[in-house]
Predict the 3D structure of the following.
Amino acid sequence: MLDEIDLQILTIVQQNARITNADIARQIEMAPSAVLERIRKLEASGMIQGYEARLNAPDLDLGLLAFIFVRTDERGGAPETAQRLAEIPAVQEVHRVAGEDCYLIKVRTANTEALDRLLREDISPIEWIRSTRTTIVLSTVKETARLPIPDREVDYGN
C-alpha cells in the first residue's frame, strides 16, 4: 500500500532522481533516515525500478525518431519476436499491441538511411516478421517517462 508520504517521495524522485535524501526529507518534513528507509522499500518492492539520465538524442546523432508497427506469424503470443526486437540497440521500446499488428516499437537512428538499414538488416531478417509499417516523427510536442502520481493512497500489491 502506498501512502501519501510514499506518493510525495515518488513525485519528488521522478522530478529529480539526483535529489538527496536530505533534500527530500526537508520537502516532506521527515528525517533523512526515514526517507532513505522508504526509498529502499520502494526500490525493493519494484515500485522504483531504476534511475536513468535523459540524454539529448540529436546531440548523439540520433535525431530521427520513428515508430514501427510489426506484424508477425507467431502463434499464441510467443515471446521470441519481442525478445529479438528488444535486443536491437536502436529499439527503445517494444509493446505488444491489440489489432492487426502484433508489436509497436520505438526506434531512434541518425537519419532515414540508418532507419532503412535498421529495417533491412536488423528487423526484417527476424524469421517470424511478416510486415512492418513505419511512421517517422517530424517534431515532438511532449515526450516523458514520468507517470502521473495519484494524490491518494494506492494498493499496488494486488
Remarks:
- Residues 32-44 form the longest helix (13 residues).
- The chain has a mean pLDDT of 93.
- The longest strand covers residues 64-72.
- The helical segments are 4-15, 21-28, 32-44, 80-86, 112-123.
